[in-house]
Amino acid sequence: MSLRQRLVPYWLLGPGLLWLIVFFVVPMYFMGELALRSGSLTTGFTFTWEWSNLPASLSGHTEQIVRSFYYAGAATVLALLIAYPLAYAIAFRAGRFKLLLLFAVIAPFFTTYLIRTIAWKTILSDSSPLVGVLQTLTLVPPDGRVLATSGAVIAGLTYNFLPFMILPLYANLERLDLRLIEAAKDLYSSSRQAFLKVTLPLTMPGIVAGVLLTFIPAFGDYINAQLLGGTQQAMVGNVIQSLYLTQRDYPEAAALSFLMMALILAVVTVYIRFAGTGAFMGGKDEGTTDG
Amino acid sequence: MVDSKSPGGPPMAAAARGWAWLRRNALPIYAGFAVAYMLVPIVVIAVFSFGDTPRDKLTFGLNDGFTLEYWRTAFSIPELNDALFTSLRLAALSTAISTAIGTLMAIALVRHRFRGRRAANLLIVIPMATPEVVIGASLLSMFIYSSFALGFSTLLIAHVMFSISFVVVVVRSRLIGFDRNLEEAAADLGATPLATFRTVTLPLLAPGIVAAALLAFALSIDDFVISNFSSGTTVTFPLYVYGVSLRGIPVQVNALATMLFAVTVIAISLVLIQQRRAERMAAVRPEAIRPEAAAARAT
Amino acid sequence: MGARGTRARGASLTIAAAIAAVALALGLAACGDDTVGGGGNGEVTTAEAGNVTGNLTVSNWPGYIDPGENGTVAEFEDETGVNVDYIEDINDNEAFFGKLQPQLEQGQSGGRSIFVLTDWMAKQMYDLGYLQEIDHDDLPAVFENLAPTLRGPSFDPERKFSVPWQSGMTGIWVDTAKAPEIRSVNDLFDPRYKGKVTMLTEMRDTVPLVMKAAGVDPEEATNQDWFDAIDKIKSAADSGQIRRFPGNDYIVDLTAGNVVAAIGWSGDASLIENDNAEWRMPTQGCMLWSDNMVIPVGAPNTAAALGWMDFVYQPEVAADITEKVTYVSPVDGVRDLLANRDPQLAKDQLIFPTEEFQRNCSTQDSPPDIEPVNEAWQSVITG
Hints:
The complex is a heterotrimer of chains A (about 290), B (about 300) and C (about 375).
Chain A: H1 3-34, E1 37-40, E2 44-47, H2 53-58, H3 62-93, H4 98-106, H5 113-123, H6 129-136, H7 150-160, H8 162-173, H9 178-188, H10 191-202, H11 204-220, H12 223-228, H13 236-246, H14 250-275
Antiparallel strand pairs in A: 1-2
Chain B: H1 10-24, H2 26-50, H3 69-72, H4 78-111, H5 117-129, H6 132-145, H7 152-175, H8 180-188, H9 193-222, H10 225-230, H11 237-247, H12 251-282, H13 286-298
Helix pairs in contact in B: 2-12, 4-7, 4-9, 4-11, 5-7, 7-9, 8-9, 8-13
Chain C: H1 2-31, E1 35-36, E2 55-59, H2 72-80, E3 83-87, H3 93-105, E4 114-118, H4 119-127, H5 140-145, E5 163-175, E6 197-198, H6 203-213, H7 223-238, E7 242-244, H8 250-256, E8 261-265, E9 277-280, E10 287-294, H9 302-312, H10 315-325, H11 334-341, H12 343-346, E11 362-363, H13 370-381
Parallel strand pairs in C: 2-3, 2-4, 6-7, 6-8, 10-11
Antiparallel strand pairs in C: 4-10, 5-8, 5-9, 5-10
Helix pairs in contact in C: 6-7, 7-13, 10-11
């Protein structure tokens, strides 16, 4: 392989990496340094290698962290259940309206997160017809409500992060060679088995990408908990927001953020090992040849 | 209840047929429900944009009445117009930049083995795992220390930054398992690397790139937290909406949101029609190439 | 590999080095000042007066003026030729401060010449050295027309750095069709209204009101009194009595009929589209506050900023603002003007409260020792 060829990946990566380094890593360095400072806003924060900020930032917030895992996890599972059949139907059943349908599905997400969430707040309000129906069906107790509950926050997260699930799934499914499924059907004779043994494994990269793209931002979200939740629904994003903007305990906010990022990375790594694909991080990639 | 095997009377047969039909069409029906679910908020927003009803109250009573007032005056709030225009410009630019940069990165990561690949991968994942408020706050510190003037350019920098990772992940999931034989076939047939990229790789990657671009656009036009820190005195659509949403959204916002939705769908349909025409002319559709690729492999 | 491999590695090292250099340069720039926060350099400047021309950027809360074609901003532009960028980007004192603090620390105002902030936040910014002082001689209309009751507030006894924009009261909004009997803050803890009550995230509104309902005077309260009130609110939140802690958006739940009562601000009647909603003076009294115009350090064109302040203190202009925003105007003479224009408005106790009406009210203030109390409060609202 020639030198020119060897340099190709660096040229391809260059602009993006440079952008991420200058506008992400460097600012993060400020944050990392901030996480080890001590003091208060009035006296000023001075750098003292304050490692105790890390455990201190966790104390009292474990409930919100556990809750974030639960909400983001539930929302991811729901989003997968909604998105997979939808992406499948769009990719294989929509014919020439394929892309149009995809766009129609994604277009609501161009109307701004806040407006959508507020619309949901209206739809789920205590006196709305929908909640009345749910009460009649005894899915909600007669004096109960949907808003300001965990259910509302999970529903909001599911809705708002759906495109993050649909798009990678679609991009993956669309590439699927239908002849493989036909061959599988010939061999396995049951479409259920064909799906489990062929379609599902082949779409695993899309599923992994979708799950991560949904789970990660949902975990750090705070708008849904703020608008759709009540007094017992705060997530770790709300805590960081409050630490940074309201309590102005910058070191603790930075420390908690770093712990949260580490936690997510750990979960992501475990998940990728478990899912057994290199679709996301630097694992073994299929289809890579060195030529 | 429904026993499809029993040779019962006509009602039973009808039920069985119904059941069979349902089974056959379960997927489209389910997908239909999913699409409806995704459109529910849009419908509510659209209804409210015509309603002469109190905002935030879901009543469709007859005495509330409908009005076109808010559509007539949709563009009568200058701040809202400015904010919307700023957001559209910002989203278009940041989508273009981040999609281009991100696609190149995805290609490098999937197609090439090189030193530092793992680190590059990590660098791409971490921004997604970072709380928005932290990204926003840290970027702001950097902008201030290096005396960047806050405004449209800092917004663009920030939006490109947080979109890149998402673009890479989406394009990547399409690239993995990509049939390299097609490209080799093109090369064997005498195409230059650039021509191969343009006529084979790019069209095959297109759905992934389009999906990534859509995501980048949605991310940009939605962003509130990071924009709030890096905007200076520039007001984007979400920043405007956030402020007014707390005190009662002017109904014009609903009209504009509905318009935004409709225009997106129409514009994209037009682009698709155009693209389909172009595709037909270029005849580089994968179905057309595949047999040749197989032939190339055989020789 | 061999030589070629080495060269490839060399190239990647070059790229890495270039990146590191950029990072280092930026990093060094950051290390210039080794403390973060701690306030300005101690010198307090006075806003400079001069010709009222050029550009002016004002940050205010949403819905606090008529920004339209015939509104107050346009009128000022017509009269002076100043080009005003009026932005409604203050939704929360804390969040706005959090966003601007790093810039103010560097002596920059983010391009803005005027902020509008609640009393305690104005004081906090002044103490950190983020605000400029104001010479009364530069503001003749302000100090001619400023209501006597607002001339010497405890947070700024000589009005050295703040000029009131609007004042208001914090009390209880009640849906009279659903809970006509709610009159005291204590009623909000009645199990009959479980899950149908909200309280503001603004600590200095909610906690003192609960304190007052328990018979404690917030102006004399100790830290322990604050903690006791916060504990009471916490157990109500844990039991589901309190539905949520909203900010500016408490009106949304009230309009939608999700709550029967909410702690809220007196001037919001026009925003709450619920005919049964009524602001009530709590039996044990309300909280009083003002939002103030202040000039931050590094503000461009302070002359136009002073011109703006003086402009909105002309009774005619102030009357227009009052008509639009329905809060308590700090400008004397507005009532007489409105008595002709709109007699109904001039009789409204929420816009022109009498001393008798406000007799049990307390002025909003911070707890004696802010940090631990704030921390306790934040842990309640991010439950």
